[in-house]
Amino acid sequence: xxxxxxPDGPKPAPGEAPQVAVELQPGDxxxxxPYMVFTAAYHLRRGYCCNSDCRHCPYK
Length: 60
What we know:
There is one protein chain. With 60 residues, the protein is α+β, with helices and mostly antiparallel strands. It has a domain at 36-60. It has one helix and four strands; from the N terminus they run E-E-E-E-H. The protein has one helix at 40-46, and strands at residues 4-5, 20-21, 29-32, 35-38. A hairpin with a 2-residue loop joins strand 3 (29-32) and strand 4.
């Protein structure tokens, strides 16, 4: 698994995690109607909370 920081994206505020692209793997999400729901495993691998009130966020 390779992670890369997007140099063109917005810079994180001081104390905020950088935006990192994480490649999707089997089990990272499931579909609920038209919505993609990310699993706790995906969030843990991503490494930070995005403050979007995700259903399976392990950082709450």
